[in-house]
Amino acid sequence: MHVERQVTPERLPPWLSALVQARFVVLLLVGTLPGLWHLHTVGAVGDWNFFRDAAQVLVGRGGTSALHLYEASPQTQIGPPALLLALPVALLPATVSPWVAVALIGAFLPVCCYLIERAGDARGAVDDRTALTVLGGGVFVGTYWWRLAADFTHPEDAVAVTAACLVLGWSRSRRGTWLPWIAAALLGTAAAGKPWAVGLLPLVASWPGTPLLRAGRVVAGGLVVVAWWLPFVLAAPGTVHALGAFRVGVWYASPLALIGLAGAPYPEWVRPVQFLLCLSLAALAVARGRGHLAPFVVVAARVALDPQAWDYYFATVALGCLVVDAFRTRLRGPWLTAVTVVVLLDARWMADNRVSAALQVVPLALACVLLVAGPGAVRPLRRRFRRTSSLEGTV
């Protein structure tokens, strides 16, 4: 029987009750207004030029063939689906497109919070503590979200975490023969647009089935990633070499600096190890029946092994923390989100490079603690995961 999802605000003061009821409007303002104000005052957005330049190439207005884009411009470190998704906005006049891009990326914040709220509540109704956790945590996430939306303008990161939240909710509430494969295609597409998102693929193993079937879904997601890139590789065989040869320098504020790699291009082993760690930790989370930890452990592993330390990275870290907070049944509240944002924002600005680099590893340490901690803090869904694939219904 379907249960109406609603907030139960009767125990809240009237002003707070009204705020909770309008929480997604509040989060929409939190997600969009700071970014739009930044655009108004600064007059430019970070990496949006890569999307505009790629859009010209993809529609045949550039100086190279569309399928030779990455071979000719390896600094375009944005995957094909992300470029295609942003194409309509990138082709708008230069005076308009940044405003539209910032507003749309900002709007992903309330969407993610809505999906987290639905996924985090297994009972079919949202109580006041869950709603307050999502509202308070979303406001903390907004501390970094404007950097993702406007300061650096990376819609592919927003799409990746949104896809993770959507699939996480599906895995807890919906069954069907084809839904896990649809989820694999969705996460594979997200990973083709943003490489670190390949770590999210183990989420599709959350659905019931034999170990071989679950592994097959993960592999299918990986094949989707390959399918997106294959036309570019076949048309321009130098694409792989060009992208592999483009390596940025390691910042002194990066955790890699702690092992003596600062000031030089990162070694070839860094990206494979980064992806392997993301995949391994997410797979462990799903295997332990704690798939809600996957987004957090993946983004935590990403920043712990990244050669740079751009602030927009921490928008996805904070959102991963909010997923954890929303699933907690004890000590309810956005505590992990708040602490992580404060540590990564305030402490980093007050510290030197080595301390900042060490602090960037803190989310990974927290993620590992959560992975090995007992499962009692999570709403029990074990009976669902014990079902065999023969019990799956239709979508």
Automatic annotation (TrEMBL):
TM region(s), chain numbering = 12-37, 96-116, 178-203, 215-236, 248-266, 357-378
Report the domain of life of the source organism.
Bacteria
What does the UniProt keyword field contain? Membrane, Transmembrane, Transmembrane helix
| Name of the protein in its database record | Dolichyl-phosphate-mannose-protein mannosyltransferase
Species of origin reads: Kineococcus rhizosphaerae
